[in-house]
Structures are given as C-alpha cells and as structure tokens.
Amino acid sequence: MDTYGNDGTGGAGEGRRTFGIEEELLLVDTATGEAVPLAGALLDLYVRPLEAAAGPVLTAEFQQEMIEVVTPPHATLADLEKDIVAGRAIAHQAAEDVGVRVAALGTSPLPADPHPVQLRRFRAMAEEYGLTAREQLTCGCHIHVSVDSPEEGVAVLDRMRNWLPVLIGLSANSPFWHGQDSRYASYRSQVWNRWPSAGPLEVLGSPEAYHQLVHDMVSTGVALDEGMIYFDARLSRHYPTVEIRLADVCLRPWNTVLLAGLARALVETAAREWREGIEPVAVPSALLRLAGWKASRWGLQDELLDPHTHRPAPALAVVNSLLNHVRGALGDIGDLHRVEDLMDRLLAEGTGAVRQKEVLHRTGELERVVEDAADCTVSAP
Fold this sequence. Notes:
Radius of gyration: 19 Å
Order of helices and strands: EHEEHEHHEHHEEHHEEHHEEHHHH
Mean pLDDT: 93
Shape: globular
Number of strands: 11
Helix content: 40-55%
Largest sheet: 7 strands, antiparallel
C-alpha cells in the first residue's frame, strides 16, 4: 500500500500536479472464477522494469489472492491513462504465465478463503485483528496527487473531505460477498471500515496536528504502525503526495481514469481555497461516515448525501455538484472535456456494480460475473 513513488514535481507552483494510481486486482481461476493464492508464484516469474519510472510495476499485497499495479507519477491525464491500461495488460500477462487471470473486482463474488502473504508484519496483523484481517480480501484504488508542502497537504485534506464519499459512489464495484448479493453497491467499503483506524478525518488545521493524531493512534497499540493509519485520505509517509484511498478498484480502466481526473481536481481546488483564505467546512466526521455508507449502499442508483447540505439528494444532482465544484481546476489543467465525457459514459453505462448484477441477471452464474470482469479489466479505454 506504500509502494507508490513520486518525484515531487508538478505541484501548484508549477501549474500542474503529478498523480499516479495503485490498483489492487484479484487473481482468479480461469475455469471456476474462484480467487487463488498465486501472487508469490506470479511475482517470482514477473520481470520488473529496471526502474519504476519506466512504467507500471506489480507488487504484492496483504493476501496471496491479489496483486497491486502501481503507476509512476504523470503530469497529464492522457499519460496516466496509458499506464493504467499498460499496467493492467502487464498484470494480465503475468497472471497468464501462472495459469490464472486478473479481475478488477472490489470483492470476490464467489466464496473465498484468503491466505495472507507470509511477511512478519502481515502475520502480526492476522494474529491481532482475527477475522477482520482474515476476511480482508478487498481490492481498492488509491490515487496519489502531489502537494508542495505538508502545510498544503493538510489544508487539502481539510477542504476536500466532504466530497470524498462521492468517489465511493462513482467507483462502486463490489456488490457480491461470499456468493451472496450484499445489497450494497460497494460492500468492499463495509469490509474495509472494519479496520479500527479507517474512515474520515476531522478538520486538523496543521501538519503538527495531523502528525500528533497519527502518533497518538499508534501509541494506543490498536494500530500496529503508521502504515495502518487507514484514513479515507492521508499524507503519504514517504512521498510528497496526498493519497485518496476510499474507492473500489474500478471494473473498467476508463472509470479509473475518471476517478483520477476528479481526484487531482479536488486536490487542486482545495489548495486554491486554502491559498485564497477560504476556511474548510467543519462538517463532523460522523456525518461523512454516513455519507460514505450511503454511497456504499447505493452507488449512483439512488440518493447520495449532498456535500453542501448533508441531506439526501439524487445521485445525478450530487455528481453535477461535484463537477461544478472542480470545474475551474479541470479547465485550467486541461482535463475538463475528457472528464465530462467519461462521466457521461459512466452515467450511461453504470458502475461496475451495475454491470456485475446485470451479468448475474443475464446468466444466473457468479462464475460468469468473474469471467466478464476479467474481460473488462483489460478492455479498451
């Protein structure tokens, strides 16, 4: 979860922030669709580029049934899009080399018995957190966006927090859990939030307050280390980025591109508000947790909580409100038309959760849901 690199360029001072993606993918049996613990064998055969900057790379994750695709940072959405597609293609080929497929699914539609990667830290997590860790076979999408300083980073976290739950709705791609219809569009969000350190932040106001909170949380012993501070968005521990980490992995690569474009625009908009002296909206994190639950439950198929009023509103109205909020940044960056086109496509075709349920309705078989997801994972943008 902490493997992403950033060269630190492209912040507000240079007019365009760099950004990159970490996508977690399931390894699934080609015949049965079941998740299989072959990450070790896959990574043993995988030939990593000489330098991470040369392109996307594959890494291990918590469970052996999944791998992570990590892009280098990019300054343009078009270049990032190329690496999102290329990274999934690399993962697809590596999976084929060990006789399996990769599938961009937030959770396994079929029953699964996950196997933690045998590293000391992961063994400690499995021992300490019991079933929460054992069942944590979930695949998310983490977006890193560069910031110029810790002060700017915390200012961004304070000012974009009320918009982040909308990203859950836009990425929703995990309606099934252990062979059952969860009745959620993003059940991964429910499973992920079992971690005691997961969820939204309060407004903190300064890097000192942020780091003191992290220190205090680790000092309780409940979070084993700083890597387990699973805020919806956080400062990277190693790189000059804000990391937005509450979205499902998206079924189709173009949906990931949309998410990345919106995330960078949210960071840029929040940074501009800070520089202009606009104070953050001090909405309680308890309300943001409810907004996240609402987005997790329905995706874009019902109401979301409006980030301005924190009352139910049609999902389309909330999505339009998000676009209006970041429109200036999108236009200045040069991403407006691409993001609008991708948003129109998402609203027309539906999220990954919608497609998964449509495939089940059409075929009656969860195995076909996984097969279709594997096809979509490497589909054309």
